[in-house]
């Protein structure tokens, strides 16, 4: 069972690893590339996480914690635009703070089957947006579009370094993708 991060260093390692796993997948991500991404030697990385498998599991577990936290915060809001807006706000804030974690979460949409528990992530997202993707395909596509836009735009915002300026524009773009009008 993956352990929870103990320190900010562990969180930084998990976020960097999540970004690499999201971009390249488990098999194509080497222990060396993971260590290089966080400025550690392989031995230093293994001091924090005993194996690549353990790091992968810990990153997925942390991604699920984020998703569950957002769901817990929106579950009492009735289905509809207000709930979706709040979900987008919370996910965007996480993505701006921990872009790798959110990229890994969204990988379940682009690389299904990589993690045995990905179905749980999809169910949490479906519950967050109150949707049955098998019967609401146009809406499901809009949600995937909004979340994809969020993932790309928050990565760009992190590269540009001006998250405060980007945040309202990201939210407006995502909200528009869902087909809602700004209030």
From TrEMBL:
Q: Which Pfam families match?
A: TetR_N
Q: Where are the transmembrane segments?
A: none
Q: Does the keyword Transcription regulation apply?
A: yes
Q: Which SUPFAM superfamilies match?
A: Homeodomain-like
Record carries keyword Transit peptide: no
Domain of life, per UniProt, equals Bacteria
Supply the alphabetized keyword list.
DNA-binding, Transcription, Transcription regulation
Per the database entry, where does the chain bind DNA? 30-49
**Segment forming the signal sequence:** none
Domain named HTH tetR-type: which ranges?
Answer: 7-67
Task: Supply the PANTHER family for this chain.
Answer: HTH-TYPE TRANSCRIPTIONAL REGULATOR BETI, HTH-TYPE TRANSCRIPTIONAL REGULATOR RUTR
Q: What is this protein called?
A: HTH tetR-type domain-containing protein
Q: Which organism is it from?
A: Lentzea cavernae
């Amino acid at each position: 069972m993956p352990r929870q991060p103990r320190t900010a260093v562990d969180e930084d390692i998990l976020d960097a690893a999540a970004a690499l796993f999201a971009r390249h997948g488990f098999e194509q991500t080497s222990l060396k590339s993971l260590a290089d991404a966080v400025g550690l030697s392989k031995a230093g990385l293994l001091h924090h996480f005993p194996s690549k498998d353990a790091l992968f599991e810990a990153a997925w577990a942390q991604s699920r914690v984020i998703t569950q936290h957002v769901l817990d915060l929106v579950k009492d809001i009735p289905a509809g635009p207000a709930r979706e807006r709040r979900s987008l706000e919370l996910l965007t804030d996480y993505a701006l703070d921990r872009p790798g974690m959110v990229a890994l979460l969204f990988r379940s949409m682009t690389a299904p089957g990589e993690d045995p528990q990905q179905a749980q992530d999809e169910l949490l997202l479906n519950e967050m947006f109150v949707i049955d993707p098998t019967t609401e395909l146009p809406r499901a596509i809009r949600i995937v579009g909004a979340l994809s836009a969020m993932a790309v735009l928050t990565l760009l915002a992190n590269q540009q370094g001006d998250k405060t300026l980007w945040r309202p524009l990201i939210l407006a773009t995502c909200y528009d993708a869902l087909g809602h009008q700004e209030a």
